[in-house]
């Protein structure tokens, strides 16, 4: 399958089942994406283990960004439909606000 997210290895933070990296098109300073390492199309198809891994990584990413940029808040975005990435690979977007 020709999925760029499946081939991704340059994670800033990662655990066994999920990885986090800076967005190529940041909406704000420190805009990061968190993805399952396996190809999963949307949130409801995640296994409990993948969900737990992503949850842990959201927490670690937030901590990392808190130290690096001190944002005042975050928006967590889980797009269900995205016409840019094909084939669709789930990502969770952690967008810091200032
Ligand atoms: Zn993929």
Observed structural traits:
HIT family, subunit A, 98 residues, binds zinc ion, 5 strands
Strand-helix topology:
Layout: H1 4-7, E1 13-14, E2 18-22, E3 32-36, H2 48-69, E4 73-77, E5 92-97
Antiparallel strand pairs: 1-2, 2-3, 3-5, 4-5
Bound molecules: zinc ion.
Residues 3, 5-6, 39, 89 line the site of zinc ion (ZN).
Ligands, ions, cofactors: zinc ion
Order of helices and strands: HEEEHEE
Which radius of gyration do the C-alpha atoms yield?
A: 13 Å
Catalogue the unreliable spans: none
Distance from N terminus to C terminus (CA atoms, Å) equals 38 Å
Q: Largest sheet, described in full?
A: 5 strands, antiparallel
Count helical runs: 2
Q: What's the CATH architecture?
A: 2-Layer Sandwich
CATH fold name: HIT family, subunit A
Overall domain count:
1
What is the top-level CATH class? Answer: Alpha Beta
Roughly what percent helix?
Answer: 25-40%
The class by helix and strand makeup works out as alpha+beta
Task: Summarize the structure in words.
The chain is α+β, with helices and mostly antiparallel strands and 98 residues long. The chain has a single domain (4-97), classed as 2-Layer Sandwich (HIT family, subunit A). Helices cover 27% and strands 23% of the residues. It has two helices and five strands. It has a five-stranded antiparallel β-sheet, with helices on one face. The chain is globular and about 35 Å long. It starts with a helix and ends with a strand.
């Amino acid at each position: 399958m020709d999925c760029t997210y499946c081939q991704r290895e340059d994670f800033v933070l990662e655990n066994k089942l999920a990885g986090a990296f800076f967005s190529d098109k940041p909406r704000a300073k420190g805009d990061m994406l968190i993805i399952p390492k396996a190809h999963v199309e949307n949130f409801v198809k995640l296994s409990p283990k993948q969900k737990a891994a992503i949850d842990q990584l959201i927490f670690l990413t937030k901590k990392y960004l808190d130290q690096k940029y001190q944002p005042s808040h975050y928006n967590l975005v889980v797009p269900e439909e995205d016409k840019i990435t094909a084939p669709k690979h789930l990502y969770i977007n952690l967008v810091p606000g200032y």
